[in-house]
Structure formats: structure tokens, C-alpha cells
Amino acid sequence: MLSGRSVAGQVFVLHLMIVLLLVVAAVVALVLQVRRDSTQEARNRSLAVAETFANAPGVTEALEAPDPTAVLQPRAEAVRKQAHVDFVVVMNTDGIRYTHPKPDRIGRQFVGTIAPALAGEPVVEEIEGTIGQLVQAVVPVEDPDGRVVGLVSAGITTEHVGGAAEDQMPLVLGAALAALALATAGAALVSRRLLRQTHGLGPHEMTRMYEHHDAVLHAVREGVIIVDGDGTLMLANDEAHRLYGLPEDAEGRHVRDIGLDPGTADLLSSGRVATDEVHLVGDRLLAVNQRPTDRAGGPPGSVATVRDSTELRALSGRAEASRERLNMLYDAGVGIGTSLDVTRTAEELAELAVPRFADFVTVDLFESVLAGGHPDPSGALRRTAMTGIAEDAPLYPKEEKIRWVPTSPQAVSLATGRPVLEPRLGEAPGWQAQDLERSGQIVEYGIHSLITVPLRAGALVLGVVSFWRSRKPDPFDTDELALAEELVARAAVSIDNARRYTREHSMAVTLQRSLLPRTLPEQSALEIAYRYLPAQAGVGGDWFDVLPLSGGRVALVVGDVVGHGLHAAATMGRLRTAVHNFSALDLPPEELLALLDELVARIDQDEAQDEHSAPVTGATCLYAVYDPVSRRCTVARAGHPPPALVRPDRGVEFWDVPAGPPLGLGGLPFESAELELPEGSRLVLYTDGLVEDRRHDIDVGLEELREALSRAGDSPEDTCRVVLESRRPVRAGDDIALIVARTRALGADRVAEWQVPADPAAVGEVRAAVNRKLAEWGLDELAFSTELILSELVTNALRYGGAPIRVRVLRDRNLICEVYDSSSTSPHLRYAAMTDEGGRGLFLVAQLAERWGTRYLPAGKVIWAEQPIG
Question: Where would you find the membrane-spanning parts of this chain (predicted)?
Fold first, then answer.
């Protein structure tokens, strides 16, 4: 009963474990409760003692006495002993002790939290002190005005607070012993009842049990053979007699003497363990399982079960073939179409089918399909993929252009859109007509069977797939034809998707390239180098521009439209065109971005009414204007990364330009920043694809960009090269636009400026001064036209403008004449009638100058005109 092998023993052990678990749970609960009660009592007692002492009469006066310790130390010790706490400490508001049970600690800093008490709130905390785990309370001492003049702390160790665990422990142990006694009695009762149930059966009941056993043994459809330790057959049921053809008197004879095949006789006489060991008996495959009978103290011998697995094997073979086909179709769904590349998708189909289905696979596609277009049935096919178990097969090589003859299986598949099975190539004259010499080489090589399946995507036939067999002697059959058709059907969807993507991608790339600047305009203010790298997949909306402005100034623009595809590229083109138009107005950067923001908002409103259009989301832009005369650069940005500035000493900084909202949000103003740049400085503008990706935050990218700029050479080209080598990812997920501009200055020897008095007679003096400057510059041929231009512009300023009036002439690539006045009224060109006495001045200016216009300033305007030099 106590051994654990009987049910009674197991029940006994279970009862004992339950009782022990209850005992342990009770003890743990008691200890936890005692600990909780001790801690709570310690918190209450320490807080009560501290508050009582802090509010006691005379404490406030003692704290303000010259020697608080002399007054408070005796009182604190008396209270400590009476209240049964471990310490009562009085301290000032800085935490310096006035009292302590150990006098040598008086005057030292109190260890604990006093900030809440200084604020008028008591604080209780548990800490690990030198005397063990303790609870201490700190309360404020307040004068009649409510001001905290000192602190009182009282503490007590938790082990000094009461507990009743020892009193309750005998009761718990007594209950445990009672439970153990009850468990033992219950186990004994169960054991007695089980013994009575197993050994109380009579002969009649036992006989009926064995009859039922015998009936079941001979009724099962599995042979049962029992052999003793000497190899004598003790029992064989009816199924065993049928499967092995045993004689009627087989029981009682040795297994080697009853006509069994040698393999089966050896197995049964050896008594060894066997699991599904197959033996051929006549035309049947019999699976034998054998186990010894003496493992649990039984008699020596073995028991073998036998079943007929002939039909099961046949079914298993067909099931295995079906399973392999299902696995192949599953692998086709997973492994074909992993990329949007037509050639790679065709190669994936060929690699999947070799050698699991065919020995060689070739994929031929119309050439127009490879370019993303519709298939041309009259055009040639190109061998896009070829995979096989060997590389010396005499098939058409990869990249070969092929035109199949009408009688070939491939041509038939292309014409009818249905698969073709040629089980014996050597006997197929239509196939051999393609190329008699090559066909003979193929048959001689050992390729003997062929399946051709058209690559159909809806009504389109994109090409044809050929499956060739050489190693396996059996030809392709109709079941394999259906499998080939299913494989190609799944691959056709992926190839068609890749074809469509190729077409869309080509269109998007063409659109994007047509919208980006092909060459940079000529200008003298900046030496510029740029790079534009498209994303790995698709085209994006990153763009840049260099725009010459009046007065020799140059505008740099970098923008980004979030997203990829035709919509992003088209939106980028619209924004770039808008910036071109707005820049012609010579607006400050912040005003230009405000106009661009309104434009994007209007685009969003227009496209919101069309369910097939998407709004512009996440468009950003940075606009910078550099003046080579003043060497000042003005920058404004709308949600774009800040520009980097590399000074001539190679110091790198990111310009702290106010970050406006992305374009299209509306309602928020844009701000600009202005900085004077030393000549030779490099201004670096970029899009977020350069500094941000999925693996790194933008702060990491900016720091890496700073490091790359610090070690780059002085030239913009070298700067672009170093930056891209250090920052370009292996597979760029976003476009990258980068502009590096090194500043140049227009020297004082190329700039002339005069103040014009508010007197019409001053026009002649200005003309004379300008003529002298032109002669100094060697531009005498422009003197006449310049006189006419300046005369008209200065006269208009005197007549319609306001003082002060200035004239400035710049010698750059062109000769630039500028007239400044304080009026904001802009002149306009008109065509005077024959009878009008005036109104022809600006017409003459427009005829003589290559370009002219108006630039508004915060206080006035500038009328300018440019004439070509040389």
C-alpha cells in the first residue's frame, strides 16, 4: 500500500502532499501577515511619536534657543524610552541633528527624506539602517505663524514590533498532524476496496472474460501470433492463418516447421523488437510489429501483429505523389514573383521545376513583354530563362531570339492558348521540323519527352514554357500535363504583374527625367555640383533647381513629395514649375513658400473632389537666395531638413533655419534666416533620403553627414562624391537629391553705385559717371544703350518715385543696371499712340535690354535691366 505502485499508495502520497501544501501555505500566510502588521504598527508608532514630540510645548522655543541640544536631548531620550522606539531625532531645517541616542552623531546630517516635511507634510519611509530594517517618520515643527522651524524624526526597527507567529505555530502543526492521520486512513480504505474488486471475481466471471477475449482475438482484421521463449507457436488467430497460409495444427509446433518464409521465421524465433518491418509473402506485403512479453515480469516469448499493407503501399505512393505536387504548387505560390522583374520571375519558375518536375525548363517571352509592353504575336520570342540538370544540353541558349515554326508544339501552344504534350519527341515530326540538326542532337542527348504550356494572363499570351525530360525514363503523362499547366498559370500572373510594373516604372522614370533639370543655367555667384539618385524601386518626388535671379543673385531649391510613382513625379513637376514662375517675381524666400503652400492647398482641394486622385501629402521645400555682392544668403524651409554649411576652415554646422510646416497645411507663416557667408563657403542642400532610413534615425544620419563633410575636399564635386560614398545605402528606399554650392563674391571692382539727388539735372551727371565706369571696364560699346536705359529709369524714379534714389551697375556675365527708389509703385510697359508725347521709355528699355523687371524690397523697389557683354 505504501510502495506507490498501487492506487492506494498514490492516493496516500497525494493526500500527504495536499496536507503539506496547506501547512506551508498557512505558515507563509502567517509570516506575511505578521510582517505586514509589524510594518504598519512601526509606521503608526513612529509617526505618532514624531508628531507628539513636534507638537509638545517648548519644542519651538528650544529650537530657537542658543543651545537646542542641551534642552532637547534629555527630553528626546525620555520620550524614546517611554514610547519604545529606537530613536527620536530633532534637527534643523538643513537636516543637522540636535539630538540622537548616540551623542557622537549629534551635529551630523540626518539620513532620510526631509523635503516633504520642509513643505509642511509628514513623511514615513522604510530604509535599511545600521540597526537593520527600520521605519522612520519625519514631521515638521511649525511656529505659530505656520513656518517650519525644525524637524522631528522617530524610528523603530520592524523586528522590535510584536507578532504572534510563535503562538499560532503549535495550532498549525497540530492541524497538519490531524490531516496526515486522516490521509493515511483514507488511503488504507481505498486500497482495501481496490483489492476486493480485483481478487473477488468467481470462476464463471473469469470464464466469460476469457471467452470475450478469444472472440475479439479471432475477429480483428490483423494477424496476432504468440510465440514462447523456445520459438514454439502458442497462438495464431484466424487472420494470421489466412495471411501466412498456416496449417490447422500449427499451434504447438516450432515456427521454422510450419511453412513460413525464412525471413518471417527468423524474426518470430528471435523474439527481437520490430516496428512495421515489411516482408514479401507471395504477392502480399506484410508489415510485422513484434514486442517481447517478459518486460513486465511476464513469461518469456513475444507477440507479433501482422497486417496486409499491399493496397496501403499503393495508396501511399499515389498520396506521396499528390503531396509532392501540392508542395510544388505551394512553393510556386511562395517562390515565384518575389520581385517585380520579368526576367527574374521567369528564372524563378524554371528553378522551381528543375529537377523536381522536369530535367530542363525553358521560358520564351515576346520581346515587347520584356520591355513592359503588350505581346506582339507576329514578333520574335526571346529565351528569357533556361535551367537544367546539366549545362551542355543542345537547346537554344539563353537570350536567343526564336521564331517557332507553325508545326512545333511551342507554336501550337501560342496559337491555341492550350498546353501540348509530346510524350515521345523522337516520333514527333512536327517538332523536328523546327531544326532538323538541333532536333537530332536533342534526341541523341537523351531528351525524350516534352510539355509546352502558354503563359496566359487573361486574354494575353505572353510567351511559352517548355518542360523537357531526359533522366527519368517514363514520359510525361496527362497528370503531369495538368500540374505543368497549374505551375505556369501561377507564374503567368506574377510575370504579367512584373510586365505591368515595368511599363509603369518606365513611364514614371521618363516623366521624372523630363521634369528634372537636365543642365544647370550659367551664373557666376555659385560653383555648383549635384547628384540625383532614384530609389531602388519606383520613382519618387525629390527635385532640385538652380534659378538665376536679378542682380547676379541665384536661388537654390530642393523639394520632396512623399511617395513614389507617377502621382509623386507629376506633383513634383507641378511644384517645380510653380517655383520657376514664383521666382520670376523676385519674392523673398518666406513669401515664395507661402504662395507655394497656397498652391498645394488648392491642388488638394481640387483632387479631393476626384475619388481617383490622391492629395499631396508630405510635400516639403527649401528655398535659398544668395547675393554675391553682399555675400548674404537668405533661406526659408517648409518641413525640410536644414541646410549644412561648410566654412572655408572646414568647420561644419547645420544652419538653424526656422522649420515651417510642410506645404499644404496652411494657416501658419514661414520665417527666413539670413547669414553672411565667407567666400569659398559650401552650402549643402539635400532631401531626407540622404540622412534618414529605416535602420537609423535622422539624428544619426545628420551626424554621419557632418563627419563626411568635414573630410571632403574643397570642390563641390569632391564633396558630392564623399557624401554619397559614406551615406548612400545599399538598397535606397527613397530618392536622394544633393546640391553642393561653393560661394563666390562679386568684387568691389565690378560694382559701382551712385546716390542721385532729387533734381532732374542730376540725370546727366549719372550718365557721365556711368560712361566713365564703362570705359574703365572696357565696355564702351554699351555706353549708348546704357545711357538710354539709365536715363529712362532714373527719370521715372525722379518723377514717380521717392527719395532716396540710387543707381548701381554690376559687371557680371551681363551688364546689370539697377535703379532704387523708396516707392512701391511698379512701372508697366505700354504701347504709346502716334499722337502721345510720352510713354515710350520702358518700351525702349525692353528693346535695348535682354531682360528687365522689378524687384521689391522691404522699403521700396529696384528696377533693373540686363545687357549681354560681348
Answer: 12-34, 171-190
Residues 608, 614 contacting (CB under 8 angstroms): no
Query: How is domain 751-868 classified at the CATH fold level?
Result: Heat Shock Protein 90 (3.30.565)
Report whether 403 contacts 482 (CB < 8 A). no
* Phi/psi of residue 737, nearest 5 degrees: -120, 130
Contact 673, 660 (CB under 8 A): no
pLDDT tens for 366-404 read 988 888 888 888 888 999 999 999 888 899 999 899 999
Give per-residue pLDDT as tens, 496-551.
Answer: 998 888 887 777 777 767 777 778 888 889 999 999 887 765 566 788 999 999 99
User: Which long-range contacts (C-beta less than 8 Å, at least 24 apart) are formed by 257-262?
Assistant: 258/233
Question: What is the distance between the alpha carbons of residues 566 and 569, in angstroms, rounded to a whole number?
Answer: 5
9-164 has CATH 1.10.10.60 classification: no
CB atoms within 10 A of CB 333: 12
Cell of 88: 527620536
- The span from the CA of 800 to the CA of 823, in Å, is 8
Domain 219-309 has CATH 3.40.50.11440: no
Which residue is associated with the grid cell 538653424? 656
Q: How deeply is 56 buried, as exposed, middle or buried, from its count of CB atoms within 10 A (0-12, 13-18, 19+)?
A: middle
From 92, 124, 129, 98, select the one nearest 111 (Cα to Cα): 129
Equal CATH topology for 219-309 and 751-868: no
∠ at Cα 77 (73, 81), nearest 5°? 175
Query: Can you point out the beta strands (E) in 632-781?
Result: 632-638, 644-646, 652-654, 659-660, 672-676, 682-686, 736-743, 751-756
CB neighbours of 212 closer than 8 A, spacing ≥ 6?
none
Look at domain 518-743 and name its CATH class: alpha beta
